[in-house]
Amino acid sequence: MEKRGFLFLSRKKAASPVIENIIFIVLNIMFFSMMIVFVARASSSAAVLEQAYAKQTALIIDSAKPGMSILVYMEDALKAAKKNGVKAEDIVKIDRAESRVAVKLSKRGAFSYRFFSDADVSAAIQGNFLKIDVKEKSQNV
Amino acid sequence: MFSPKRIVNSKKAGEKVLSIWWFFVLAFVGVSVVAAVSMFYSADVDVKEIEAGILADRVADCIVQNGYLSSSFIGGNFKLKECGLNEEVIQNSQNFYIGISAYDFSSCNEKMECKGKIGKLNFSAGMSTMPENCRIKEAEEKKGGKAEYFPRCSEKSFVALNRRDKTIPEKLILKIVAGSNQRGGILA
């Protein structure tokens, strides 16, 4: 009967060094590939960017006065959205009834944040910028 | 029989690299990478204190105009809508608080610690437990705790003048406490 070591066959009948090296290299490649895939998937989720831009937009709206137009540079968000197949016009949505900003950079969902300003707000992507227009709320809105 | 000494002393390179120790190293590296990446990408961008500061400033700009208290605040019919704020969001979302109190200027010391509160000039809206929760959070953070889920408050003091009501002092200290506990959320 074949005698076994702790993990592998006994030293006397171990595989040749060439096979051992190949197994070693394959296992290492597998391990580091898994790590790279995990890090790449985690970084492409864009969750932190979504959160940061939603909060930044809500704070800008809250501190803006009626009549103001603000441009926010968001090239990194646009790149993340493009990579994840999200159209530029779907990145920032403003729900006026709910006073809510939603930023979507991946197909998993959007991060939303409420603003307390009672203004008439609109937002649209223009080139690498997000243009936020804050107007006085009309009586019939 | 398994012997670490034997593995280390082994002359065969293949035996060394395929040892159980190598898998411990890989597991350690793997767990560290997963933990670090998860911590980084699950980080919360905390803007509650900034938001509370903005809310306090908006209210201050509105009730103190050119250094004088607004007539609606003195008259007791002040509404947040006058300041361009959405009352529904502040009152019902349970994420915000705004409190205004006024003190006789002569009752305050240099550190803006005041005693003579003017009962007539008072206003509050939103989550009334927030100032207390902010105090708990501050106490907790002084002890070295985190209190991540507690609200953040911003307290601002201003000197304001009163010309309209002769029953209250002419020179006042206005204290505005604003709080936010908004965390935002993911929409499906």
Task: Give a count of the beta strands of chain A, DSSP E runs of length 2 or more.
Answer: 6
Main β-sheet of chain A, in a few words? 3 strands, antiparallel
Number of helices of chain A: 3
In whole angstroms, the N-to-C terminal distance of chain A is 87 Å
> Within the largest sheet of chain A, what's the order of strands?
1-6-5
Q: Order of SSEs of chain B, N→C?
A: HHHHEEHHEEHEEE
C-alpha-based Rg of chain A, rounded: 26 Å
The Rg value of chain B, from CA coordinates, equals 28 Å
Query: What is the general shape of chain B?
Result: elongated
Based on secondary structure, the structural category of chain B is alpha+beta
Strand content of chain B: 15-25%
How many strands, what sense, and barrel or not for the largest sheet of chain B?
A: 4 strands, antiparallel
Write down the overall mean pLDDT of chain A. Answer: 86
Provide the structure class of chain A.
alpha+beta
Oligomer: heterodimer
Q: Runs of chain A with pLDDT <50, length 5+? A: 1-5
| Average pLDDT taken over every residue of chain B | 86
What share of residues of chain A is helical?
A: 25-40%
Based on CA inertia axes, which overall geometry of chain A fits? rod-shaped
Proportion of beta-strand residues of chain A: 25-35%
Summarize the SSE layout with pairings.
The complex is a heterodimer of chains A (141) and B (188).
Chain A: H1 17-44, H2 47-63, E1 69-73, H3 75-83, E2 92-95, E3 100-106, E4 109-114, E5 120-126, E6 129-135
Chain B: H1 4-9, H2 13-17, H3 20-41, H4 48-63, E1 64-65, E2 68-69, H5 71-75, H6 87-92, E3 96-104, E4 117-126, H7 130-142, E5 152-161, E6 171-180, E7 185-187
Antiparallel strand pairs in B: 1-2, 3-4, 3-6, 5-6
Concise structural overview:
Chain A has helices at 17-44, 47-63, 75-83, and strands at residues 69-73, 92-95, 100-106, 109-114, 120-126, 129-135.
